[in-house]
Amino acid sequence: MKSIKFILLFTTLTLLVSCDKKSKDETAKIEYQCPMKCEGEKVYSEKGTCPVCEMDLRLLSKASKKVLSTEISEESIFNLTSSWNTEEGKTITLKELKGKTLVMVMVYTTCKAACPRLTGDMRNIEQKIPAEYKDDVQFVFISIDPENDTPEKLKQFAVDNYIDGEQWTFLQGTESNVREFANVLAVKYKQISPLDFSHSNIISVFNPGGELVHQQEGLGVDNKETIAKIIETVNQ
Ligand SMILES: [Cu+2]
Does residue 176 fall inside a structural domain? Predict the structure, then answer.
């Protein structure tokens, strides 16, 4: 009788151990995938680069999801205390954009030359971000003509350019806020007539902590690196 009890106990223990081992194996399963999904849903068991686009493969495990630190580094734009009006008529500080990768550009709505193309470049970048990352990226336009670009005008600009969605934000500041922010981005601009400005053509990427991580300069330039950087920061 004693030996039967012993065998039962032994069997139960073995079952428990093997069950435990199974669940450990499942949680330890690590898979990598191309962030652009060049090969569809294909996964790799080891770190590396995508053989098609050569971007770093990303970890698929839930554990890879970033844990946002509450601290802000000295380089972060979230240290700026300036307040801004949005196209929806809200007043915000930049810190309220914390937690998402930010893609920013400085334009003005009456521009007939470069700004429409910069806007097209922003839309192009947005369209190339894979759907699963879209919630983690915010596209921000800052007007260099705050006197004319009121929240209403910015809203109209968004509608006219088919960029009137949650992932798009348009900001009107004060002359000095705009100048201060332009200095952070190394964007130069100058009013050359009552209606026109000359300005740099720069799209900047900030990580979710508000640190500048990448800039693309020019109009209609190859945005591959910009997109890679956006995905990399979302993935941090
Ligand atoms: Cu312009």
Answer: yes
